[in-house]
Amino acid sequence: SQERSARLRRWYELMVENKEELARIITAENGKPLKEAQGEIVYSASFLEWFAEEARRIYGDVIPASAKDRRVLVLKQPVGVAAIITPWNFPSAMITRKVGAALAAGCTVVVKPAEDTPLSALALGELANQAGIPAGVYNVVPCSRQQTAAVGEVLCTDPLVSKISFTGSTATGKILLKHAAGTVKRVSMELGGHAPFIVFDSANADWAVAGALVSKYRNSGQTCVCANRFLVQKGIHDEFVEKFAKAIEKELHVGNGFDAKTTQGPLINEKAVEKVEKHIKDAVSQGASVVTGGKRHSLGKNFFEPTLLSNVTTKMLCTQEETFGPLAPVIKFETEAEAVAVANAANVGLAGYFYSQDPAQIWRVAEQLEVGMVGVNEGIISSVECPFGGVKESGLGREGSKYGIDEYLEIKYVCFGGL
Questions:
Q1: With the C-alpha atoms ordered 230, 267, 35, 109, is the resulting torsion angle positive or negative?
Q2: Residue 190: active-site member
Q3: Which residue ranges does the chain devote to CATH 3.40.605.10?
Q4: What is the pLDDT of residue 102?
Q5: Residue 300: predicted pLDDT
Q6: Residues of the chain with confidence (pLDDT) below 70
Q7: Of these residues, 107, 156, 224, 226, which one is catalytic?
Q8: Where is the Aldehyde dehydrogenase domain (predicted)?
Q9: Which among 26, 3, 17, 149 is positioned nearest to 88, based on CA atoms?
Q10: Does domain 195-376 have CATH number 3.40.50.300?
Q11: Inter-residue long-range contacts of 173-176, CB under 8 Å, 24+ positions, other chains counted
Q12: pLDDT confidence of residue 357
């Protein structure tokens, strides 16, 4: 484990040394602003550092035996080959969050990066070689969009693979789960979210707007923990909407990710733009108002204006499914119970956010929200020390944190008799 720890540590150091180049690769592949890409590389590298440290803390157990002539031991051993299937929205961090844990546990990995963003995975491979990680331990299988389903199926059905870790859509996750069932593989899934962002009357409106801005529009709204439904209590509703609109117009700048003032890059592809348009059109046809934005940006291609809708209801598409784009729909509510009921009506539960200054309410709502991660008066909650993952149809298992390495370990019980 000491050797694994040292190699992971070296890999981390090389990522930090090459931060600028790695960030430029992300911006070129995925379009996110360079500053966000640099942030992703720091976050991404931190998982290698974290799991380099955790590699030496894989403790077993000694259990008191019921019979005098026995000793009972528990060993933790690597599960074996792990297939890692990752998305395009965080083309580096979604790899290291899984691979760091797998390698720390002693597994080897086969990474299938998203077809839109294979270069980040290959760049990590180059640095893994430089870090002295042995050939065959970190493997990358890039493939075209046409081949994605077939390659995914092979990774999930091959008996030599012991474990699947997937981040991506709920629909794809369900297909992979079916494939994995054939050989009863260990499975970790981090699937879609539909994060509620609740603003109660007691909230500090300025804090709530600042949190809403970063939670919603980071990566142009293309993260699985993005606020997707804004539920705002009637007493603070008008103030929040007005301040949120002003902040969007003043602080967000759509443009090329390599341009220093850009905060909003393009969406990943034409299909993503069409989904945002469809959600807006559906909402407006049912009576929603466009407060700001609402259409494709004059830059053309996959650029879209950051958009805020008010007078939104739970009947609209944008509140029933994840948009994955720069669209913030605001629903007005009256009571805490109503907000919690709307938030929990989704069949997924990854992240949830709420703003309140009432301590009793904070405890109640934090416990009642059916999500794996809760941000209270905070819009950005991801961090390497904290367990990342969801409940319901948002997934299985947790990544990062002291819990993340368990996903790659088997527990073996050894009974020593005849003593």
A1: positive
A2: yes
A3: 1-191+394-417
A4: 98
A5: 87
A6: none
A7: 224
A8: 2-414
A9: 26
A10: no
A11: 173/395, 175/149, 176/85, 176/152
A12: 98
The pLDDT assigned to 158 comes to: 98
Residues with Cβ within 8 Å of residue 108, at least 6 apart in sequence:
80, 81, 82, 102, 136, 137, 138, 139
CB count, 10 Å around CB of 360?
8
Architecture (CATH level 2) of domain 1-191+394-417: 3-Layer(aba) Sandwich (3.40)
249 is catalytic: no
Question: Which pLDDT score is estimated for 202?
Answer: 98
DSSP code per residue over 161-191: EEEEEEES-HHHHHHHHHHHHTTT-EEEEE-
Please tell me the distance from the alpha carbon of residue 151 to that of residue 131, in angstroms, as a whole number. Answer: 28
Q: Which residue has the tokens 């729909």?
A: 329
Question: Cβ of 359: how many Cβ atoms within 10 Å?
Answer: 9
- Residues with Cβ within 8 Å of residue 341, at least 6 apart in sequence: none
Cα(204)–Cα(200) distance, integer angstroms: 9
Nearest in space to 330 (alpha carbons), one of 200, 231, 248, 240: 231
Residue 120 token pair: 């980040």
Residue limits of CATH 3.40.309.10 in the chain: 195-376
Query: Tokens representing 255?
Result: 């443009």
Give 183-220 pLDDT, tens digit per residue: 999 999 999 999 999 999 999 999 999 999 999 999 99
Given the residues 190, 305, 336, 399, the one annotated as active site: 190
